[in-house]
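Complex record, two chains
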Amino acid sequence: MASPCELLIDSQDQKLAQHLTSFAYAECRRIEQKYSRYLGGNLIDQINKSKGQSVAIDDETYRLLEFANTCYEISEGLFDITSGVLRKIWKFDGSDNIPTKQQVKAILPKVGWPKVKYNQQNIRLPEGMELDFGGIGKEYAVDNVAKICKEQAPLTSVVVNFGGDIQVTRSRANQQAWLIGIESFKSQLKTQKVLRIYQGGLATSGDAKRYLLKDGIRYGHILNPKTGYPIEDSARSVTVATDHCIQAGLLATLALLQGPNADGFLQQQGVKHWCYR
Amino acid sequence: MQLTKSKNVTAALATATCALLGVTPTVDAQESVWEMDTALLYYGETDRVTAVEGVFAAKKDFGDEHIFSAKLVLDTLTGASATGAVPQESVQTFTRPSGNGQYQINASDTPLDDTFKDTRVQLEGQWTQPLWQDYKVSSGLHLSKEYDYLSLAVNGSLAKDFNQKNTTVSAGVSLAFDTIDPEGGRPVAFSQMVIDQGQFANEEAYRTAFGETRQSGSDDKTIVDLLFGVTQVISRKMLMQFNYGYSVSEGYHTDPFKVLSVVNEQGQTQSLLYENRPDKRARHSVYWQTKYASSLGVSDVSYRFATDDWDINSHTIDTRFRINLSNNTYIQPHFRYYQQSAADLYRPFLMEGNELPKHASADYRLGEMTAYTLGFKYGMTMASGNELAFRLEYYQQNPKNSGVTAPGILQQQNLYPSLNAIIAQVSYSF
């Protein structure tokens, strides 16, 4: 998951804690093995190297594709799991290494979710295109691990925290809140914002450290799959709290894709949110 | 590039999420709300003071640990309080502090002034927030008003965390300004109580004589408190705190309602003088506290030593042990022991014919004493998360003779009567 993953378990029972941790570890590893685009030979790798050939998929993958499809539709094309190829020309390393117009023009035909054909049995991805579940994979893992914890220990409150993407399985005994600190990017003061979470999901999108700087213009790392360029004036980081981690993660990402209108968008959604610029 | 169907986004996403995870949605995260604490306290001394106090406190975290807290305390005191005069073999007559009227004390009874009555309003506001990395600042205002007393105070403190927040070092300062304007005026130091026993030709003559024992206007007192502390996490279960405090006050320290009996060699009262205290007092204190959490509950033990330039040295040991009876109920026994030496200005009485000391007071609170409190608290957390608690305590104070030989009839009198009180409190937090 490329980030620290932890479980906070509201219990004195060491056996239960070990039990839940091993379940969580197994589930986490399973999802990573299956969907990480960094691992060769897995399902995603097979699809990405299929050269336009049909690849068989299982029910879980179909559900993820359906979810990605909904995200594409509700964002009117801004959230696109085929946009990962843009990172071949955009490397957000803090440098001034901006790709040329020709490079952008050349890669854009390889982006476009509607070009992907899939059904419950198989998927066909045009040659040169790539799928990337990076935008939802970690949150999906958090929700799945939380679901397992809830099944295994329905009366115990567990916080699943994978690098700041969080799901709380149920409220704690005595109505106590979990105090969750999130790093704020407000000025250079590294203050922590402490949230009181009783139940539900929390996710943060954005990374203040990933950008390019050229001629005084800051290019944030959120790319618009329609233009091939970074979204202008996007927030540096958005945190959203709602029922499920994956929902929160998506809303946070969609807010970043709104550019200057992130706050307005989140207000319209009626969700708790914290937006840093 | 706006989402035109924004309002549908959440709903569509929620449906997609449930389809993906195969679950139904639940409650979301919450930001903090106002936390309220209310309490009603009864304090009753046998035959003496009764106090009823209501406390209303509110606290809110406005995010990022920016915390505002406010407190309102209302209390009423009624009853009788010891004047400092010694008991006698015969009935004694005293003039009320206001100069309006008299009261009589039966033979062998400790003289108490039964006109003790007051209402106090106290208001506090405090703001605390993080500053830079690992620093925290706090500042507050305090106002307390009684019928004849006004106290205004400001405070500020700075704390810094070290060792991944395992050590906290703090420094604080508080400045208070008190004004006193007692009913009937402040007595002139060591002036003799004027008692109308028919010796005055008329009311006006009495009033003139009484007026001569009084100073006009109000007086005040300023207090500076400095506090330095270290809090250390010892282990996952243990926390320790050390504090050093220095307090210096300047101004009017005298209790305008307290007197001293001047007795002859037979122990008979010849006159009553209003007390006189120094106009400066400096106090040092050290405090140590340890909290330990075990599977049974939480124990909390503290010790305080204080010494001041009036020569009062005191030791306080306070222990509480919270025992969890179930997931949502607990009982907490409490024991406190207190001991102090007498102030150098403490005199249970003055001898006739002796030179007057520079300062003197017969206030039992400045004499040698031991005191203890024994009680318990029972608390329960309700399904709503609100907490209801009851506290019942017994307090006993035993003043002691610090080596004064009582003359004549005073040997048969109880010059150091014990005082006991019951404390009952109900508190509710929501």
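Note: Chain A touches chain B through 59 residues (CB under 8 Å).
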